Amino acid sequence: MTTTGRTAPSGRRLTLLAAGALAAAALVAGCGSSSSSGSSSSSASSTGSPGATQGTLATEHDATLGTLVTDGQGYTLYRFDQDTSNPPATHCTDACASLWPPELANGSGSADLKGIDAKLVSTVTRPDGSRQLTLNGWPLYRYAPDTKPGETKGQGVDGTWFAATPTGDRAMPVSGGMPGTPSGGGY
Fold first, then answer.
1. CA gap 60, 67 in Å, rounded
2. Within the chain, how many helices (H) and strands (E) appear?
3. How many CA atoms lie within 13 A of 14 on its CB side?
4. H-state helical runs in 41-187
5. Fewer CB atoms < 10 Å away: N or C end of the chain?
6. What digits encode the pLDDT tens for the residues 80-127?
7. Listed residue (10, 128, 151) closest to 76, CA to CA
8. CA–CA dist 99, 107 (Å, integer)
9. What is the C-alpha end-to-end distance of the chain, expressed in Å?
10. pLDDT, tens digit, for every residue of 10-69?
């Protein structure tokens, strides 16, 4: 019986050490990865604020890419090919969400829509509990280097980020060519 009493605290220590090592490994893995699924993150609330017009989706015409989805301030919204649309799931958290801030739903969860079919708009719950707007199941994001409304600097980044069309598809150049794949800013 005495051995069991001594083994139990030691066993608990090993369990706590193992849990701490797993948490540290998950944190390190999440920093360099685009798919930190299952990680608890507060990145969505600290990713910058696109302004008081969050929850507004509108359409704008771009001479190169055609009709795109924008937020209420006219900033281009993007979709990430490492996310999923069916079921909707976001995989851009932590450092990724700092560069690609999620387009969050307003308090009521409904969006003010201009030129977009309401049947295609919904939300997905992010790992931190916030609700991100989706279009045809695809979570929507801004690109931090887009500093002016109408910019599309995120188009084609790393071959996984694309401006969203009003149907949630990837925007492609109107000429029919493939978008460039700038690097260095994607996840």
1. 6
2. 2, 10
3. 6
4. 95-99
5. N
6. 999 999 999 999 999 999 999 999 987 665 678 999 999 999 999 999
7. 151
8. 23
9. 54
10. 443 333 333 333 333 333 233 333 333 333 332 332 233 333 334 799 999 999 999 999
